[in-house]
Amino acid sequence: MVNVLFVCLGNICRSPTAHGVFRHLVRTEGLAETIHTDCAGTGAWHIGEPPDSRAQAAARRRGINLSDLRARQTRSRDFVDYDYILAMDRRNHDDLLALAPKGRDGRLHLFLDFAPKLGCAEVPDPYYGGDAGFERVLDMVETASLGLLDHIRRIHDL
Ligand code: 4NP
């Protein structure tokens, strides 16, 4: 089993979107029994909440259902339980680095490292903006999900 965790700040916009898009891709590729996907937030404000309704609506327009997801906070154990921890931005990355047990930070990546052609390092936080921000998040997340899955297939011979 390969375990993949997407992380943002609130766990209600970017990381559930990434979770839903990547999970959809993994199912489409027939790898659902092999690749397990989850998401979490470095902040505690939204624990137990479903994804933001704007994130759910934007994903639904692309055939992706996020309604079963519930926010939780990252914990140091995530660095034991997950093989790939994907941070949406540098702040998430640095907060996760502070949480990582010694010798385990090799599991941590900026998600957009798997989408070098996009030419940006961070998925911008859409929370305080309009609908266009959620569409942009989806575009970026779709591209990086393809790159991440390619990488995992190569490394794990899937
Ligand atoms: P996310 O967006 O990190 O993509 O889930 C945010 C959602 C809520 C907050 C911050 C970011 N907040 O401060 O409540």
Give an account of the 3D structure.
- The chain starts with a strand and ends with a helix.
- The protein is globular.
- It is built from five helices and four strands.
- It has a four-stranded parallel beta sheet.
- The structure holds 4-nitrophenyl phosphate (4NP).
- 4-nitrophenyl phosphate binds next to loops.
The end-to-end span amounts to: 11 Å
Please, what is the average pLDDT? 98
Morphology call:
globular
| Secondary-structure arrangement, i.e. CATH architecture | 3-Layer(aba) Sandwich
Tell me about the largest β-sheet. 4 strands, parallel
**Cα gyration radius (Å):** 14 Å
Q: Indicate the CATH class.
A: Alpha Beta
Low-confidence parts, pLDDT < 50 over ≥5 residues?
none
Which distinct ligands sit in these coordinates? 4-nitrophenyl phosphate
Give me the CATH fold name: Rossmann fold
Provide the spatial order of strands within the biggest beta sheet.
Answer: 2-1-3-4
Instruction: Please tally the β strands and state the result.
Output: 4
Portion in helices: 25-40%
User: Please, how many domains?
Assistant: 1
Structural class: alpha/beta
Strand content of the residues, in percent?
A: 5-15%
**What is the ordering of alpha helices and beta strands?**
EHEHHEHEH
In short:
This protein is α/β, with parallel strands linked by helices. The protein is 40% helix and 13% strand.
List keywords for this structure.
158 residues, alpha/beta, binds 4-nitrophenyl phosphate, single chain
Chart the SSEs and their pairings.
Blueprint: E1 2-8, H1 14-28, E2 35-41, H2 53-60, H3 78-81, E3 84-87, H4 90-99, E4 108-110, H5 131-156
Parallel strand pairs: 1-2, 1-3, 3-4
Helix pairs in contact: 1-5, 2-5
